[in-house]
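Please produce the structure of this protein holding S-adenosyl-L-homocysteine.
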Amino acid sequence: MRLDIITVLPEMIEGFFNCSILKRAQNKGIVEISIHNLRDYTTDRYRKVDDYPFGGCAGMVMKIEPIDRCISALKAERSYDEVIFTTPDGEQFTQKTANALSLCNNLIILCGHFKGIDYRIREHLITKEISIGDYVLTGGELAAAAIADAVIRVIPGVISDEQSALSDSFQDNLLAPPVYTRPADYKGWKVPDVLLSGHEAKIRDWEFQQSLERTQRLRPDLLVDSINDNILHDGK
Ligand code: SAH
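Below is the modeled complex.
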């Protein structure tokens, strides 16, 4: 997968992609990440990428031209599956979206700033708008990093044990079961006996029951989603 991130603050996220699993994914050649400084695409002599809003409201708005020039330059090199804009009024980012995006070859993520971007960009250039939650950040960089991380970690080969991404929370609309490591007894805080039994089938069954119980208790909405998904699949 190739991922192009457009931002006015490249230094804010460069470090993020140069650590740990995401760095290894790039070294293995599974993903190529390119971060573009929007100011490199402006013709303004002060490299200005924002301007006052029409209508006189507060704040600054990101201009069309540099964003259009940057996206056009990228599109001239390859075709993109999606041009994503991070925005609090976009569709809520979920594991399902991450899984779907992980199947794409080329993605652009545009980070907004200030009051947001000139709406015409959203109408004409953006194909998908994503929010990472109902709160407002100062810029789209953290959102882009969160989206990229969740997408990349489910690409086969990125996490060494492929099963481990599939058994995480939200896959199959379930929360993950609790996990433990040595020692089996710490100051009397004990690991559940079943996990020490060596009985594979019983352990898997315990994990599933834990997942179900925790989902019912903490996120019953996920089970409703699951029922709706099954109805949709059966209806096809
Ligand atoms: N005026 C906008 C908020 C602008 S915040 C509004 O009220 O909707 C500045 C930028 O930060 C946004 O353009 C967006 O790119 C990013 N951002 C802020 N909160 C976000 C969120 N919850 N999810 C994704 N991006 C977000």
